[in-house]
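Open question from group meeting: does this chain pack into something compact, or does most of it stay loose? Before anyone orders reagents, we agreed to write out a predicted structure and look at it together. Recording both the input and the output here so the notebook holds the full record.
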Amino acid sequence: MLQRWEVTKIETYIDNLKINYIKKGTGKTVLILPGWGTVINTYNTLLNSISTYANVLCLDMPGFGISDEPKNSWNLDDYITFITKFIKSQNINELDVIGHSNGGRIIIKLMSKKDLGFKINKLILIGSAGIVHKKTMSQIIRIKTFKFCKKFAQIKPIKTILPNLLDKVRNHFGSADYKDASPIMRETMVKLINEDVRNFLPNIKVPTLLIWGENDTATPVADAEIMEQMIPDAGLIKVKGCSHYVFLENPSYVNIVIANFLTGGNNGNNN
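Structure tokens returned:
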């Protein structure tokens, strides 16, 4: 049996994809689903705290860290299938789940699935993605311009004359995450950010804690307020002076809030 402070880094295979993950601590199971572009080490402050009262797992999502990239672009349902298979591969019957950013988006829709084969008792969403807002006119124009320039840059004679034009178009119009991604992961990113999960929020029937940095620009507090309103049993904690990585910017406070929520204040250690 794992000792409380022992860390085990493990590789497993889910649908022929090598997946890197970590297990730490003992007790009830808590799974951390990372945000887009983040890796296990991003969540060390959470892992170290939660492992003092629970068995916590975190993984490099496919395409990030040292986990394999999907063979084809994925949509949200593909991620749900993957996470379901990962949980079952660990022989987990019940667990609590923490979803940060894109990890939150995945778990929100997963909670609408029936007959999962395991039980999720509590849910924590930290700066969760998933609310799609109506685009402004300037955003629409920018998107259409990008699509036009992208198609133009891929015309064979243009590619021959200006082989670097497509990269320049992506660098000009794309976000940092988009520019840094491989072609498969770019397609995946587009599929994810275009799916609005707000209609799945009322289907979350477990106690849910929302933790948000008040200065979050990636997933604004207004998104958290929508989630709090639409999830039947949800509470929102807004953390002043923090942004999308609130758990890194104010770890002491966030760790205490999480511990109290997951243990009912009976963890015996709020470090």
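Observations to bring back to the group:
Confidence is low (pLDDT under 50) at residues 1-7.
The first strand starts at residue 7 and ends at 14.
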